[in-house]
Description:
Strands 3-2-1-4-5 form a five-stranded parallel beta sheet, with helices on both faces. Helix 1 packs across helix 6. The protein is of the alpha/beta class. The N and C termini lie far apart (42 Å). The chain has nine helices and seven strands. It has helices at residues 18-32, 53-67, 93-97, 100-111, 126-141, 182-190, 193-196, 212-226, 246-252; strands at 9-13, 37-43, 71-77, 115-119, 160-164, 174-177, 232-235.
Amino acid sequence: MSESYGLDVLAFGPHPDDVELFCGGLLARMAGQGYRTGIIDLTRGEKSSRGTPETRAQETDAASRALGLSLRENLGLPDGWVNPWAGFESPEPERARTAAVARVVEVLRRLRPELVVVPWEEERHPDHEATSTLVTRALFFAGVRKFEAEPPGTPFTPRQVLYYPLRHLAEPSFVVDVSSVYEQKRAAVRCYASQVQPRPDAPPTLVGSPLSLSSLEARDAFYGAQVGVAYGEPYVVRETLGLADPVEHFRRNSFARPLFFPQRR
């Protein structure tokens, strides 16, 4: 059965700012090429040591404009308690239909994204790992006809799922060149001043530490160097990718061979 797609690219983030930090370049580049892009934040980040949910919402609006998003929604799940299994411990059908995974299924069936971008499974923050598990489960059940969500929607499977590493490094399946939109990514990240701006009067946090943003930029420069560009973002796919026309693929994606990062033997 052929799928009818809606949104072109949809990224899921545990908290507002996670997508900007780790795959903002991809979204900015895709929007710049005319694709319709969106972000679903699972929580409002209300347990953050800095700022308030109100200031975070204002920062999110500004960052969304900086990335050129077509859509952004927040599911309002409890920060610190993202749970892929919530609601399914109860035999009550009505409760199961409002479980976290069912809410993500509803989003997928309603927006019908062609490309879905999800946090990688290994991460330091429990909500980040839980988000990976939750969205991965929802991606499976979104295509199951008898899986009930509210409203039900038509079963749907995206064309491709990409996983983006956060603080933990992962062996990438490929690297996206984001050099041309890196200032745009920087601008989106800096919209979250309450979170990323070092301030002596604010509680110490990892993302708000003096070296946080420079270390993330160094990561993007490292992955960019692997494909011979200034900045790159790594992505992982869990299945083997197929190419119908390798000649055309490599013509359109011709990158300099890396000089300093040889492949393992």
